[in-house]
Amino acid sequence: MSARKKLAAIALCVAAAGAVGGVIAAQSGGEDASASASDDGKADVVDSVDEPLQVCADSWNDGNTNKGSVASMATAAQAENPTAYVHVGFSSVFPDRCMITVANPSTMYAQQYVQGGGTDWPIAPAWTGSVNDLDESNLPWNGRMTQDGTIIVL
Q: What's this model's pTM, rounded to 2 decimal places?
C-alpha cells in the first residue's frame, strides 16, 4: 500500500472514531457527557458530574448565606492556595436532603451540614469532629471548597 493510501486510511479511521464518539455523546444527553476511546477501540461514555450532586452543590452555592464562615474554618491554617475537601451526598437519615461534609486537611477538623427545607442551609453544622471519626461513606472527596465557600463538584 502506498504512503498516500496509508495516510488516507488513517484519516478515515480517525474521522470514524470521532463520529462514533459524537453519536454516543448525543445519545447519552450531550452536554454533560463525553466520549473516549478505550484501548480496545470501543467508545466509553463518561459523565463529568453526577446531576443530583451538582444540584446539591448549586443549592449550597446559591442559597447559603453562611458559606463564607464555613469556608474560613475549613481553610484555616493552610498556606498557599487554601482549599477544603468536600463530600457532596445525601443524608442517610433524610435521603431527600443534601448533606455536605467539609474537611480541613491542616487541622483534620470536619463539619457536616444537612440541607433544611427547600434550598435552606442551617448556620450550625449537624456534626463536627475529627476527620478520623467520619463514616467511610463520607470519605470519597468528590468536591472542593474555595475560600469564599463555593463548592466545586469534581
A: 0.67
Contacts with 2 (C-beta within 8 Å, 6 or more apart), sequence order: none
86 alpha-carbon distance from chain centroid:
9
Cα distance between residue 69 and residue 125, in whole Å: 12
Given a contact cutoff of 8 angstroms between Cβ atoms, the answer to whether 114 and 78 are in contact is no
The label of the residue with cell 471548597 reads 145
Which run of H or E residues covers position 8? helix 3-27
Residue type, 77: A
User: Cα separation of 112 and 58, whole Å?
Assistant: 17
Does pLDDT of 35 surpass 70?
Answer: no
